[in-house]
Write a structure and sequence with these properties.
Elements: H1 4-21, H2 27-34, E1 45-52, E2 55-62, E3 68-73, H3 87-95, E4 98-103, H4 115-131, E5 136-141, H5 143-157, E6 165-169, H6 181-184, H7 197-205, E7 228-233, H8 239-251, E8 256-261, H9 276-290
Parallel strand pairs: 3-4, 3-5, 5-6, 6-7, 7-8
Antiparallel strand pairs: 1-2, 2-4
Helix pairs in contact: 1-2, 4-5
Length: about 300
Amino acid sequence: MPSWQSYIAHLVLRLFVKRKLEKAFTPSDARAAFGNHLPQVIRGVSFSAETIGGIRGEWARSEAEGAGVMLYLHGGGYFACSPATHRPITGGFAKHGFAVFAPAYRLAPEHPFPAAIDDALACYRALLAAHGAERLVVAGDSAGGGLAVGTLLAAREAGLPMPARLVLFSPWTDLAATGASIQANAERESMLVGSRIQEVADLYLQGADPQTPFASPLYGDLTGLPPTLIQVSDREILLDDSRRLAEKVNAAGGRAELSVWPNLPHVWQISQSFLPEARQALAQAADFARSALASGPVAA
């Protein structure tokens, strides 16, 4: 049964985020809608700036460290948010024992496709060299989820090994916006605006084919991906992006576990301090990721 907190979360997002995103769209307005507040302090977690593979970002670490290394790619439609906005997730994974690096990959429209892929791949190469594939997990939410899959497709094309696990929260995998849930869940979705999704995609693509696999991995060859966990809510406009991705990974001979949660907003995992389902979902994701990793301390 959904928590009472989930109903409040929908109301708050509908009033203070979706209403802003429904208005005339500019990158600065949309960035403001996602929030410009100060980074949260996560008790028991330290955050430190570092440059990995030439890309700035930050590590999230805790005393529980030992599960492995995670490359976490934040969401925000490829034009908004940062490692700091997603500290509730990266800090949550750190509390579960991961050393988490979240890169500040370049954002559109100033840096259109494939800048985000180039930056994420550079980080992935560096983390592979430092820690090995058997210690590494890749994860991401929303646009960062699609970026995570696209990065692994680019890594495979470059002859790099796959990580031990892939974790995705409500991934945006189809920038051509063909999923039926974009219309079916348009009213139930409390955060994203289905009628503007193509506008956001165009901001990032700037003329590139929306079905190019590195931008829309749903249209790529999905063979060889690592075991994958996908969490998504039944109320999201991106529900079918998750459903179809899981189906195609499994059809390609891989293993994708689709976990559909009832009555929750887009990327509810970020609400660690308020939603019990956020803490439950993160624990599920951490258990899934940790199950395949070689154990031991992570080098600084």
